[in-house]
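Archive transcription. Copying these from loose printouts into the bound notebook so they stop getting lost. Printout 1 of 2:
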Amino acid sequence: MNITLSTLLIYAKDMQRTARFYAEHFGFDTTYEVVDGLMELKNGDGGAEILIHQAAKSLKFGSAVVKLSFSVPDVDEFVATAAAAGIKFGAVHRANGYAFANTKDPDGNSISVSSRQYRA
């Protein structure tokens, strides 16, 4: 049996804003069209897709139990580019031959960029 993680579903206060964040800063493709209550974002490199769903007003944001981690070959370069585009990452941490840095999306979901996949 072959099992792969293919989709992440994110509940958003503002679907358009959240979709724009992932499209502009992480390279996802989307039409911004809502179909069956979901906005689809595809990864051009074949990774997992993201589905954005309108959050219920009763949903509490900010208590993270999941973190999205994006693999990038050069964390310092990505963080510098993101800063120029208005995204503030925390400090770049280095451990065991790779680097990582953390931020949050517009809804407070935890995100990291990591070069772990590219370590020698």
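Printout 2 of 2:
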Amino acid sequence: MIKRVVRRYWVFAPVLAVALALLVSTAVRSSDDNSASGYLLKAASQKLQLQASYSLERRFAGRVAARQDADVGFELGGRVANMRVNDGDRVRLGDVLATLDTELLVTERSQLQAQLADNQARLQLNLANTERHQSLQASGFASQQRLDELLTEQKTLAASGDALRAALENVDSRLRKATLRAPYEGVVARRFADVGTVVGAGSPVIRLQEVAAMEAEVGVPVDFALSLAAGQQVSLLLRGERLEGRLLTVGADVNPVTNTVTVRALLPSDARAFNGDIIQLLVNDTVPTAGFWIPADAITDGVRGRWTVYALVAEPQAQRVEARDVQIHHARADRVFVTGALADGETIVAAGVHRLVPGQQVALDDPVAAPQLGQTLEAH
């Protein structure tokens, strides 16, 4: 009977062994959990350094302008006979740009030359007659009246000759002005006329832009204009490229629309700038506010819309996280300038604040370097 009972319960021996193994495994895990309860998160830290102020580089937008950019044309009207240049052509001082039809001027010049030749012939005859009459008068064979008439005629012919020569000079001047020449070295920005076009006196035929160092024309607020002076070096930003220019002039009046003063700066000769390009003038601005530069990752949302920084308070076995309200004065991608419930020399959590809560104990990780005190950019 006893042997039968033993055989009957011996079947449950494997089940008991499995249950015993599960109990041992649970005990081991419980022991591991107890040891893990003492683990502390590591927090990246940074020691605060109080700054008396922070510096910005303000951006003021303007445009690039050629030092000389003129619409040139003929001083006299007429029909365009020849155009020597096209848009984009580079010309030197004195190069021919265009010419007018001069057929009428050439004819007029020929007429004047013929009239002058006739005048000179009559003048030569007058001189000969005058000389003969003066000889005859000395012998008593000529009247004084006739001699006076010849002398008066001589003066009249001389005056007519001077008038004809002046008219010839006028025609020659008009012939020269029928040729349009480049007033300076430059690039043809635009052509307004073609061959056969009848243009009026002073009408623009070609827009010529000087090939020389370009200028930047920028409007700045009065407060910044007072800090600028002609001749000083300034920083410019053209299509993302930083350039060093020289300030030429500071305007003397305030634009009533923009309430700014226009300043002109000379660009470097090797600047790849085009007339009308957008350019920015960079001006240093120091804000006298004491505060701290901290990493942008050290800022988190606080209660009621406030910004919060986690300070680290030393305790015997760890560091305790403590929330501090701050105010952001200036921000950029990697750092912010703040003021608030912080003190010089305090240590804050520099990154990973989303993993922490106030009152939590943490261990210090490797410190994060304080942000450099370089300048930031602010657009205007």
